[in-house]
# Entry
Amino acid sequence: MQQWLKDLNQSEAPARFTVVDSLLRRHIAANITDLNGLFAAYAARDENAMTRWYFAGDQEVSWISDMADSVIRSRPATASLYVASVRSEQANLAACCGSLLGAARVSCGDPSATCEFDAYETLGVIEVFEATVVRNQAPTSLAALDGRLQRDLALVDNTLETMAVAALAGDQAGFDAARVSLARAWPRVNADIAQILGP
# Structure
């Protein structure tokens, strides 16, 4: 992972992969942190911490693998195919994320709380959307709207990553602050989708 991050830092991504390039760097760095946390938990014989760090690392590996595959398989899409793919992902967004976007307070200190799991589950939905628009390269007529959508999805992605890390660290204030940011960022994605889908 460290070598991959080094390789990315020594290269410049094509313009159409600028957003995913920055996300890859962040997720690879997060995976390194997760692995270090797992090793530390193992050394401390802390089974609960091991389980949590293992789960976090597994989520990062899934994101990295799926996104790398989408970059490799990226191809120009027709307007109709691109719009159809965005419409499909819109349905997935609508079906998720109520606990994090709702008004009720989420207490991560509660032993039954699943803050990082909820954050990573939501991130998984965003990941699929990100991978879809990377794999289906928008035509020129939709390129500007696609660029805005990718940037706003990345904002949500980064916010969810911050929430998960805060939950893992037991940082309730950090989790709450990121949740406020998520509530602001999510409508931007919905607005982007609405513009792409049109009337």
Summary: The first strand starts at residue 75 and ends at 76. The chain has one domain: 2-197. The mean pLDDT is 91. The beta strands are 75-76, 136-137.
